[in-house]
Amino acid sequence: MIFNKHGIIAANFKHTQKEKSMKKSVLFTAIFLIATLVLGACSQPAPAPTAAPTEAPTEAPKPTEAATEAPTEAAPAATLRIWADDTRAPALEKLAPAFLAEYNVALNIELKSSLRDDFQLAAPLGEGPDILFGIPHDQVASIVANGLAAELDLGEKAAQFVPSTLDACKYDGKLYCMPYATENLAFFYNTDLVETAPTTWDEVVEMGEALKAEDKVDYIMAVTGTTYDLYPLYTAFGGYIFGKDANGNWNDQDLGVDSEGMIAAAQWLKDQLDKGNIPADWDWANNHALFETGAAPFIMAGPWALDRIRQSGIPYAITNFPAGPAGEGYPFSGVQTVLINEQSENKLLAQAFLTEFVATEDTMTELYNVGQRPSAFISVLEKLDDADLIAFGKAGINATAMPAIPAMGSVWGNWDTSILLVRDGKQDAKTALKEGAEKIRALIANPAYGMVNVPGSYQDQAGCEAAWAPECAATQMSKNDEGLWVSGPFALKAGEYEVKVALDGNWTTNYGVDGEANGDNYKFTLDADGEVDFVYDEATHLLTINVK
Amino acid sequence: MALADKPKDAHSIAESQLSKIIRVVFMIAFNAGALWFIYQAYSKGFYQIAILLGIIVVFFDVIFSLKKGYPFRWMAFGLAFMLVFVIYPIFFTLYIDFTNYGDGHLLTKEQALVQIENATYLPATGKSYDWTAFKSDNGEYALWLTDRSTGETFLAKPDEEIQATKPGDPGVGEADAKGVPQSIEGYTRLNTLLAAADKQLPNIKFGLAGEEGLSTVQVRSPNEAAELQIRYLYDKEADTLTDQETGRVYYDKEGIFTSTDGRTVQPGFRANIGWKNFINFFTSPALRGPIVRILIWNFIFPLISVVSTFALGVSIAIMYNEKDFPLKKLIRTLLLIPYTIPSVITILIWRGMLNSEFGVINRILNAVIGTAPRWTTEPIWAQIAVLIVNLWLGFPYMMLITSGALQSIPTDMYEAATIDGANSWQKFRSITLPLLLVAVGPLLIASYVFNFNNFGLIYLFIGGGPAIVGASTQAGHTDILISYIYKLAFESGGRGVQYGLASAISVVLFILVGAMTLFQYRFTNMWEEVSENA
Q1: Does domain B18-97 match CATH 3.30.420?
Q2: What is the ipTM of this complex?
Q3: CB pair distance less than 8 Å for A521 and B192
């Protein structure tokens, strides 16, 4: 029965199919035709016979856009595409008509929520904007490393910026972004509960415990995070993240996550937690609520939280950070910046836009008004009259710029985990931070951390895949009893060879002739097939080559 | 009858001819459009996309021109989209596996070379100037140059020797405050922005080159024009770069031009690095570390999730399958709510409710029984919390699918069982469950596989935490493979964004999940046997 039924259904279907097929194919054809036409029309390049073909499509001005933006003007001479965040985009929108009127250049402002991620995806495809507006300076590092940020020349305008903010934009001595604002944490206290600001962390505990004993507060302090948000506490105890080398550059081999001060500060936090002085949960919003409802008299917060604290109506004052065993604590400082896309075809125009139009008192004042951060532009900063922001500036006077080195990317997560393990009582402060620091070191230094090698043109005869391989384990040196590093002997064919000393399996630290860092190659010659061994003294960085 | 049929036939033949014409026109248009796309993709260096489009075009042409391809015409679009959005990404992932695509190697080699070849340097003897641009009516530029060290002024035009000129000279107007002439005969003075709006300006070489002591000047930035030289020469044959300034030679070494003494030329680019990503993954501390623990949890988490959601879903479905259940419709509607609210919102709400310190659940527990579990910091409670949230998210779906299946179970079976003296549990075990499993078995597997990769829940709810003490990488007790990989490849637990490594790991993961699904389909066969017996 069922089988028959199926047969009938199938037959019926075939019948109707044939009838409908004509209509269907017409329909499909129509859809396809429209689709091809639309697609073709959209992506048709503007005829630009004289220009190079690759430049043609983007070069053509867009007449329709120009018409809507400036109905009285002729088409603008050029268009700058800008990506900005939700704070900066409206401010730029406001400036666009003035800019168009003055210079006949249209600004096409697009709002983006995750500027860096979107940019790193779009820019390599040639779809990025000309200008990226509102990038924190520590995020610029990876953009520069990816070759997506253009070098900047602010010319004489450079003198009008706060020098430290310009430093934050420099990589390898070259300027890659233009700063416009700075931000850092400051110490807030509730003026109803506390009369005079505490100057040391001991006073914080003393005052807080007194209030707690009177049942006026639940906690002595609100804690809004584990790493960045607690940095002024860590520094007051002598903690740090990266040390600096003699030239003032960050030294990623000097990691301070497990420094004495960091451990002491983590222990201090754990002690306060055990006494019930601070909450066991350090969620940002929850802890802000503690301060804003008067349940905690102290908090460390940034200018981004100023609005919500003001709106809460709690009486507050902003002051410098309390001191600890290592002196007054200092926060990280961040610099908000603008950068130009290296892949942009409008680099010169974009630079001119920044120097001629953005780096002016009017625009910088406008940016200050929407952003509510101390300006990086000296003349605007000098006019700063907001008492809160002045207090922020004072609290951040000794701030260290957030290290903008790739190694920093490996720090945040592991540092956070270590502090959480201490907070939750899973590990004591020392073990947790030591283990966290080891993980970071492993990531920064790569698997070959600690390796001493003699990369050179001989390596392909010594069991390596290729010559000049600092990571090749076959030629790795080992330390002898006298404290000297030795490798070999290697059997080599007659010929001329060049070598160098490299540490940690890469070229970052390398020594050449006379033990000079980044110096010239050592050269040696084998007149006949023979053996060579190497001796390296890590005190003098000198390499001895013994040819047999 | 026959008469009536005839005109209809003629009509349909005419229609088919019309459709044939339209089809040919459409195919020509389609081919033209597609060829243009392919050309664009090819000329921009997206070879894979060009090849893919080519395949689709051939495929469409065959289908729409051959009679045999007729049945495929209905599926052509679906197949094309599948090719573009499913098959292509798979192959792209496989390709990315073997590259170092990621931070530091984002650009293609062509893009990196364009950038490197555009790099310029100012030789030690080279001069640098402040500039002001002038433009003639026929679009030619002239630059007014002020030497930065000596303050001497020059007028430079393309292909003409640079002339030392002062304001007030013949044809040159008087100087303004900056010492730049207000006008030059035949030219209009441009402000910096207006001049910069011309993309060609930085490429124009002012002055005459080639002869001894002469060099051209180019605009370098809005402030500076200088006697720039091309910095790097690329030798295509040898694939090497030569630095014109220092003479150093750079070789392409795994996506970055590196000299023998270890100096590199930025930017790096994507390069084929063979099996390195896989080797890195299998030899990294990430694998030696907590991977076993994560794998075990990765199998347990979806298993308990599926069993618990199925159990709750079935019980509720059976309950309101009873005819005289009060307020049936209202309850059924209410129970569907968790399914209709976007899970992102639900997860975040649960995250707040289960907060150890401030969460409503712990406050109530503390008030009522005086103690409360620390959901976010104790490993076992964190795992339980994740399972509870997933139960909340998942049971309405199970309820929906089982209530449908329940209605298809013939009631006479229950009647027969009642006559045989079976109690409710026996009826459930021997009738309801086996017949249900036949219907929803494949859906349970789908649910298991979905939860195996339930990144959203784990990541949003707790971020994989709490951390595993002593793990060599950043790993948490609730981390499943996919969230762990995310941490390693994209977050601060690793070394910046590494698409290559992430692709390699996801291929390993794909093999795991694929094997699992295959294995479980064997079980469905088993269920089918059960149904035959029933």
Answers
A1: no
A2: 0.73
A3: no
